[in-house]
Amino acid sequence: MLLKTMLLPKKPPLSLNLRNSKLSKYTAEYLKKQLEHPEVRITALSLKFTFLEFEKLYPIIKAFGPTDKANGFSQNKTVVKLDLSNCGLKPYPVRFLLNELMNNSTITEVNLSGNFLDNEFAFDLAHLLEVNKVLSKVDIGGNPIGPEGAQHILNSLLQYNDSMYSLGDLSSCVLMGVKVRKDIEEALRLNSVSCDAKAVQLKQEAEGRLKAFPEDRQLRKDPSSLAQQAYPILTPVTFTNAVGDDFLE
Predict the structure, then answer these.
(1) Which of 18, 50, 147, 206 has the most CB atoms lying inside 10 A of its own CB?
(2) What angle do CA 63, 65, 66 make, to 5 degrees?
(3) 214-221 vs 223-230: helix axis angle to the nearest 10?
(4) C-alpha span between 96 and 80 (Å, rounded)
(5) What would the pLDDT profile of 48-79 be if each residue is shown by its tens digit?
(6) pTM score
(7) How far is it, in rounded angstroms, from Cα 23 to Cα 230?
């Protein structure tokens, strides 16, 4: 009853915090309808610690996707922040959310920290970063993402994305590895500075790597010539003592 009182049409914009709430299927369906209502203005939605089953989470997720009148879905255009942290989520249900965010031009921040999102999720997130140019923060801290998944995220940031400036506390993603985590943090820092600075930095790093290993490049081109320079052929040794001085008779 309280939720119905809060979500009345034409009320001022509100930030809806349902943290630690136990939502029934009916409540989830009602929330989905209110998210789609053109006169209900929710700017932020927190479902932290709700541990929603997929059948309850799915209708809410669909509210952030494109309008589909044939199936009764209308896209929400007011929510800018969504918190699904510490909900025990695995990659499969989150894939549906990321898919809906492909065409969402409103949400700028999503919190997915403290879940069970691994490399499979990282691959999906990397694809989203290639397409969505509105998201500026996706908190993925505290998830078991490994080096391979982290590398996919890094590649998307470097090649396709200029809007993302934060992925949360990456030091809590202990499975990533230090190097790729630092590379991601640097890519995010460059995004927050400017696109031009990012392009210049990447070019300088590429040139720096080439200049740092000239011998290696030469070795790849002509290994035999480099080996000869390193180990020149020895010249014959001339003995100056007389033949008669030789003790071996």
Answers:
(1) 50
(2) 115
(3) 120
(4) 18
(5) 999 999 999 999 999 998 877 566 567 899 99
(6) 0.77
(7) 73
Q: Which residue has the tokens 């070795």?
A: 219
- Between 34-43, 210-219, 238-247, the lowest mean confidence (pLDDT) is in 210-219
Query: How many residues would you count in the chain?
Result: 249
CATH at residue 19? 3.80.10.10
Q: Are 99 and 65 in contact (CB under 8 A)?
A: yes
Domain count, the chain: 1
b/e map of 1-18 (b: 16 or more CB within 10 Å)? eeeeeebeeeeeeeebeb
Q: How many CA atoms lie within 13 A of 69 on its CB side?
A: 0
User: 165, 188 in Cβ contact below 8 A?
Assistant: yes
Q: Distance (Å, rounded) from C-alpha 138 to C-alpha 129?
A: 10
In order, the DSSP letters of 84-106 are: -TTS---HHHHHHHHHHGGG-SS
Residues 6+ positions from 215 with CB-CB distance below 8 Å: 226
What SS3 class is residue 82? strand
**What is the residue range of 204's domain?**
2-245
The single-letter code of the amino acid at 231 is Y
